[in-house]
Write a structure and sequence with these properties.
Length: about 260
């Protein structure tokens, strides 16, 4: 069977659901929170409650709305399962051409991926993308009964930019199950880019709507935000960070 879970193997079921539940099967099957059938939790009065669509409905929807830890201690979650499906993956390592235009090239490449991400999501394809000025890591994953043609169109366009980008590595795989794909590709990739042991502080920003009207605008907003972060890191003698871009929900996709 297949269930909608996170990409990183260390993500717990409850914590995963608090943010809606984005994962490699989200484009094909929906958010993780949409698959919750039932919770069991202990409320502050010490009562053990069973929550579902017909019992304690108000509290069930409150917990599904992102308030897992706010309403009680979750002791179990029942999640809808789907028939087992094979999963296809593509892993790219792409290097920009040498020269003085690396910053411009990475912005252009983020915009290029951004133009395709909406279509990928509609086709059931999830993506994770880590670009810096030296290398771009792009992974795509999807249930094997859909999505292949959308990937080939992207590859064709990428090959038309041979003067700007070189495909250093292009690896395709097919796995019998989501679990196998998680163990052999998704999990190792998440472990590779996750800052385990680091001291982190999450923050959010309000981004003008004008920055989301085109893939190019999104790319420029991402890189401008990253430059602000890296300016602080460089002052402390630390290496530059790279953005981590997930494509699991529809987003800006119009051509500038």
């Amino acid at each position: 069977m297949a269930v909608v879970l996170g990409t990183c193997p260390s993500v717990g079921a409850a914590g995963f659901m608090q943010a809606g539940g984005h994962g490699p099967l989200t484009p094909a099957l929906g958010l993780g929170v949409d698959h919750i059938l039932q919770y069991e939790l202990v409320t502050a009065d010490g009562e053990i409650r069973t929550l579902n669509a017909v019992q304690d409905l108000d509290l069930f929807w409150a917990v599904c709305g992102g308030g897992l830890g706010s309403w009680g201690l979750i002791t179990s979650i029942m999640i809808k399962a789907h028939p087992a499906t094979r999963v296809s993956t593509v892993q790219f390592v792409i290097r920009p051409a040498d020269g003085e235009k690396k910053t411009q090239r990475v912005i252009n490449f983020i915009a290029l991926v951004g133009r395709y991400q909406h279509g990928w999501v509609i086709k059931g394809i999830a993506s994770s993308f880590v670009p810096d000025e030296e290398n771009y890591l792009l992974n795509l994953y999807w249930p094997s009964n859909q999505g292949d043609s959308a990937v080939l169109v992207f590859v064709d366009e990428l090959l038309s930019h041979v003067d700007e980008y070189t495909i250093v590595s292009f690896q395709t795989s097919m796995f019998a199950s989501v679990t196998e794909a998680e163990e052999k590709v998704l999990g190792p990739f998440a472990n590779r880019i996750s800052p385990y042991g680091a001291s982190m502080q999450m923050s959010s920003q309000l981004i003008p709507l004008s920055s989301l009207e085109s893939a190019r605008g999104v790319a420029e907003a991402i890189w401008a935000g990253l430059e602000g972060i890296n300016a602080v890191l460089r002052k402390g003698g630390l290496p530059n960070a790279a953005p981590l871009i997930f494509g699991s929900m529809p987003g800006a996709h119009s051509v500038p």
